[in-house]
Amino acid sequence: MNRNLLAGMFLSFTTLAFAQDDAAKYAESITPADLKKHLVIIASDSLEGRDTGSPGQKKAAEYVSGFYKQYGLAPAATAPDSSKSYLQKYNLYKRSWGEVYVKVGGKKYEFNKDFYVNGLLNVPQESSSEVILVGYGIDDPSYTDYNNLDVKGKSVVMFEGEPRSADGKYLVSGTTEKTKWSGPVSWQAKARVALDRGATYIFIITEKTGEDLDKEIRQRAVMARRFSAPTLKPVVEAPNSVAAFAVSPGIAAQIMNTSTNKLLKEKASIDKSGKPLLKQMTGNVAVKAERKSETMETENVAAFMEGSDKKDEVLVISAHLDHIGISENGEINNGADDDGSGTVSLLEIAEAFSKAKADGKGPRRSILFLNVTGEEKGLFGSEYYSENPLFPLKNTIADLNIDMIGRVDQAHANDHKYVYLIGSDKLSSKLHAISEEANKKYVNYKLDYTFNDPKDPNRFYYRSDHYNFAKMGVPVIFYFTGVHEDYHKPGDDVEKILFDKQAPIVKLVFHTAWELVNREERIEVDSNKE
């Protein structure tokens, strides 16, 4: 064999071995003890669950920023005064219910306890009005409750559904078939009729009572949260279009200054006679239904390590900083696993790379350590970054995203040496291969691809921050160890984190990142899987 060729092969092998040894050397700085040291702070009661935009979340951002500064990572964002900052600030916008009540004779009935509201309306100050009973509130060519009835400037009370005779036929259709005046959205048609005739507010008497009504009110309260969900763009509402208060027969009777039995007899008389009410029932009511605008100020934390000869290409390593805050009963949801485990993993990976750089072995490509917020509200921090990247996405080679790697799920209760990988092969076959090789060489955990299956009903690929990179064509890996019994509950505490199990996963992310930033060729986007 040619001596020069043999020498060259030996030199290449030695260089590769040294590079591998370097990666292993700096990975050893990632320890269970250090992960715990950070997490007891990030997931402490003093941070009150790190709800998005809360003082606790901002304390977490301050802690993370201070750590990055300590290890020499540069602030990557720009503050309003044009100085560099670790904080990429952005706003979330929210419209929500303020004070809402129905008041009769000085007694207030509580929103989402005694009644619920269909649709949106905005009554910022208490408003009183005369009320008139309009039967079923129907106006149809074959039947109307509004003959010779003036409701202009008055509120109206009406029964839910539509009248039918003793033989089971509905008065409107003349058959056993219901019409648009019955069903879950029939309130809209009734409310439009009343509003077109000049009515002020609409009260619909529900057919449900007792526990059935309580259950309905609870369900409606949950459904109504969609009207209060935060968004990245300012919310525009038309809250004075079509809305109705849904009240029980008991509350309606109070409004009409009568008894429940007498009120229900009026309903029965319509059904029996096939004719609208022959006499008017009136009363008085006051309502308040306040819609509030809120602006939530929050921020991603972005710390940058500049590369050497390939510094214009950037690897993002991400995790979300926030959690869900304090429950209604006052219990703190510390989010030690979700996603305190990911947050502290970034700190340890940053420390390992910083030590390498201090020894003259820094990365060839640049690395952005990105702790996002708004994940629990709708992946907003990563969405904001993808729309306002600090470094061009065309130069972003991949995103390695860590979310919940500190516990085990039921499927792996007897084997903790695993991690779910999601998305690794969806955009880049090379990224998947690099991940597999890093695991085989350094960690030897089971790489579980159960949730990578596009048919998996959990759809985790779309449920964490990596997705906002993937949808922009940036290859991703999502590291995850599954949902456990304390998911989004107060029991997600530091004491339950398996740091000895977590540390090798963090090392796997580090070794994958090391290869991505130091290899000669940038990985290609060569696939487009679901």
* Extended strand count: 19
Structural class: alpha/beta
Look at the structure and give the mean pLDDT.
93
Approximate shape: elongated
Name the features.
single chain; 530 residues; alpha/beta; two-stranded antiparallel sheet; 32% helix; elongated; disordered N terminus
Short description:
This protein has about 525 residues and is α/β, with parallel strands linked by helices. It is built from 13 helices and 19 strands.
Write the layout of secondary structure elements.
Layout: H1 3-27, H2 32-42, H3 55-70, E1 74-75, E2 77-78, E3 84-85, E4 87-104, E5 107-110, E6 116-119, E7 123-133, E8 139-140, E9 143-144, E10 155-159, H4 186-196, E11 202-205, H5 210-223, E12 243-247, H6 249-255, H7 260-273, E13 282-305, E14 310-320, H8 336-358, E15 365-372, H9 375-378, H10 380-387, E16 396-402, E17 418-422, H11 429-443, E18 446-448, H12 467-470, E19 476-480, H13 499-518
Parallel strand pairs: 7-10, 10-11, 11-12, 14-15, 14-16, 16-19, 17-18
Antiparallel strand pairs: 1-13, 2-3, 4-5, 4-13, 6-12, 7-13, 8-9, 13-15, 17-19
Helix pairs in contact: 2-8, 2-13, 6-7, 8-13, 11-13
Keywords: Signal
Signal peptide: 1-19
Domain Peptidase M28: 300-499
